[in-house]
Amino acid sequence: MVLLHGHLGAGAAGKVIESFGQVVIGGNFVVGFVVFIILMIINFIVVTKGAERISEVSARFTLDAMPGKQMAIDADLNAGLINQAQAQTRRKDVASEADFYGAMDGASKFVRGDAIAGMMILAINLIGGVCIGIFKYNLSADAAFQQYVLMTIGDGLVAQIPSLLLSTAAAIIVTRVSDNGDIAHDVRNQLLASPSVLYTATGIMFVLAVVPGMPHLPFLLFSALLGFTGWRMSKRPQAAEAEEKSLETLTRTITETSEQQVSWETIPLIEPISLSLGYKLVALVDKAQGNPLTQRIRGVRQVISDGNGVLLPEIRIRENFRLKPSQYAIFINGIKADEADIPADKLMALPSSETYGEIDGVLGNDPAYGMPVTWIQPAQKAKALNMGYQVIDSASVIATHVNKIVRSYIPDLFNYDDITQLHNRLSSMAPRLAEDLSAALNYSQLLKVYRALLTEGVSLRDIVTIATVLVASSAVTKDHILLAADVRLALRRSITHPFVRRQELTVYTLNNELENLLTNVVNQAQQAGKVMLDSVPVDPNMLNQFQSTMPQVKEQMKAAGKDPVAAGAAATASIAGALCKVVCAGAACAVV
After folding, report:
1. What is its main location (predicted)?
2. pLDDT digits (tens, 9 = 90+) for 348-362
């Protein structure tokens, strides 16, 4: 408006601009420049600069404090001070606070840019207006300068007042420090705390309403509204206010005293199996991406349950801010069993016997079995497959690791409730047998037998055969190792079946000297009656013999394409099997 119609006079740019030029600065552009510069200094140097610095510091400090706040929330949750829902709410509040200060850091740049734009617009209008007045409309230099400078100053003041208000509002939001109340509540309480604030605003609105050239009706309406509100507030009875405060205090007291006290329900339970993920791995359980990790964990649970004949506890998956971004940890009965760190955005290329060449990527090891692997980008998947690599996604890598860890802790996860469920199945198939088993062995004895079988890798699926053997053998002995040995003998076909190839079973057996030595150790332990059969002390020379022989035997059988299986007598199977697991991981000990 100033550049297009400035030659028509001060009123061509609008009544408000004319009023500011004529009334506010008295038609003196020097005064206008001084007022404009003062407003710019206040806006640009004081308010905007301070708000920008505060927003930067607040954003940085908020982000730096975020891990500590997350750890404090986890600590309160683990201590039972808050429940899971409250923890989720607090985490959202922490994230919202970080997002707010980050956004305000960016918003302060816009506010500062608005102040800079005001100065640039002033210079453009001033120089451009004078040039247009002189060269286009043939005004004298003095007239053009007087006319365009007056309108430019008026326009600048009109623009700077809203800019100053915007900067002040942004600064108030950034520098606000209060309790848990939101900012709208705080502003309402502070503005309406005293009628004098509204009376002051009423006077300012009324003065602006009587300034020539200003929009009179809007200012008068706002002045009347603010005056009426202040009058109503001044008439509010003091007794009612005191009564409200008293009622609020009473309500707060009742609420605090009715808070849930510490009880058994507030103590968090230990989960049998849990999987904690760093925040970069949380996407693997995102419903929008198909829950790849959740689906594979369910498959692991199903396979392990089917193979062992017992229902595996549900595997809980949760985010853990204490872990590294790409780290995960597996917990058994609340204790960390293992952990690993994998690239969340890469695939694992596992070399096979058919692999040729090397593919570009990050070298590493398989978290589950420690085999050398290469972590590649998803775009390299087709190339890796063509080169003979097995390509495995992150969800499958974690699920494989969980499968390995959980299988090794099956005996520890089996408890009294599992015995109840197992015997309920037995009762549905053979009610009388279930009654005889309950009469022959108590739950404590049964738990030891079942755990011994699971430790040796014996499935409990054939519960009818297992119960039949236990009922018969319990009349002779109550020792859980001997009972488990009898069960193994009865299940010899199912135990050896996975290792049979073309109706043949290739095994290594203990020589007579070693077999007799183990038998004597077991007999001495039984006669002493002080040592459990599953913890019989073994002579160091015998252990050295196992350590030097069993790894060689295992490698020979694997080289011949056969499963590493060792067979022994029922009486010494437990000790021999334990020694095989200690000195030669992966060797099976089957009774035939």
Report:
1. membrane
2. 999 987 888 888 999
